[in-house]
């Protein structure tokens, strides 16, 4: 194999691969011969240590931000992330950008993502090779990690969201029935029965389990998410297979309405709801209001309802009034107790 390199005269010369390797290490060999042996080995071990730390740095959480064509919304989302308190933990940030019709990319979104300074760990900006839609954003961006938190670009996180998520994960993520943890607090409704569509009456306690996934700040359990992705890959190609779930008939009805409108590809959550039903799983939710005197500012994740796939023109003026602004240890005083709420809202 021929490799091209530039010599001191400025001319390019052709050398074979073996020669190029020798040329590249010859200055190192000369340095070794001229330096004291102890200094040489000292530098060698320091260099190895640096490379080891860079490649083995523990990632406490990987945040995957899903973006498309809303630069202002992405800016708000990233600004909120920048205010989250991580207590020195290493947090990886992956920003995934979907392509537009015709395979183009929103340049403002790309510039916003590239220019954002992340101080808490490694950051990557990824653009899909082709348009993948909302399903692809959720299902094609996961990487093997203990904890991954999905955040769509119209969701803002409270500064205390990580504190709560970390405690909840350490306490309950090993529970066999837990499929993941959602930071969502708003718009949790009864999925079936006489109270269908009504606001969920939450049980007492700092958190609870519910078999409906809340996507506004969702951290799936690694083993469950991996199995779900494989399951979806297999069943979604079966002719006539539908994720209809009688126990979650309200969500099934919404999905069927989207099918009639040709928009079922915007409701990936129906598949996860169906999967959780088959596997008898629940998603954990915070119940900050229980220990926050019912205050409005009790949310760890706030959805701004920006104009997009699911909302027309309704947008919150600010997410700040709804966010948890002060921390109290009672928010994570779980005591090992976990209440499961059924599809019909009973517990």
From TrEMBL:
Instruction: State which residue ranges cross the membrane.
Output: none
Query: What InterPro entries does this protein map onto?
Result: Nucleotide-diphossugar_trans
PANTHER family per the UniProt record, alphabetical: OSJNBA0004B13.7 PROTEIN (PTHR33604:SF3)
Its name, as the record gives it, is Glycosyltransferase 2-like domain-containing protein
Species source reads: Capitella teleta (Polychaete worm)
What lineage is this protein's organism placed in?
Answer: Eukaryota, Metazoa, Spiralia, Lophotrochozoa, Annelida
